[in-house]
Amino acid sequence: MTSSAPTVRRRLSCSADDVWATLADGWLYPLFVVGASRMREVDDDWPGVGSEVHHSFGAWPAVVDDTTTVTACEPGLRLRLVASGRPGGEAEVEFRLSPATASGPGDGAVCDVELAEDVVSGPALLVPRILRRPAVVWRNTETLRRLAFVAERRTAG
Asked: InterPro entries in the record, alphabetically (predicted)?
């Protein structure tokens, strides 16, 4: 992942383990990944390196079947993916988790999550980064908002 890839950050009100458990359940991706409309299959060894989630994106009837592949995995810390988005190409996506110290009332666990993404192949590379960046930042800001909804509520009790 290049240092110039658009990156967004969010503090979640749950532990890094809680966030990781959400990322490690491939069936949950359509709940938080903007654009994903359904899961078709999740490899048994997800999120192991080389494993894939088989998803679709778009709105019916214009739904495209595609895959996302794990290229690096440090459980509880980092998940790097290559997301195929035909016909536009592929994007490299990286989630980075770090436990944080709560600042405020209560002593609940918190986790800082960074999400970086950029196009790595295909026709989308023809769009200059300065024009791609606002859309990627908007999409990933919403993805982290949705990830927070899922991870925080899965652990609320």
From this structure: START-like_dom_sf (IPR023393)
Residue spans of alpha helices (H) in 2-79? 16-23, 29-32
Tokens standing for 95?
Answer: 């989630």
- Residue 140 belongs to a domain with what CATH number? 3.30.530.20
Separation between Cα atoms, residue 120 and residue 90, nearest integer Å: 6
Q: Is the dihedral of CA 13, 8, 114, 142 positive or negative?
A: positive
- The one-letter code for the residue type at 15 is S
Q: Which amino acid is at 143?
A: T
Q: What is the pLDDT of residues 48-85, one digit of tens each?
A: 999 999 999 888 888 889 999 999 999 999 999 999 87
Is 137 inside a domain boundary?
yes
* Token digits of residue 52: 């894939």
What's at 145, amino acid-wise? R
The amino acid at 131 = L
Q: How many structural domains comprise the chain?
A: 1
Judge whether 135 lies within some domain: yes
Q: Which domain holds residue 100?
A: 7-20+67-155
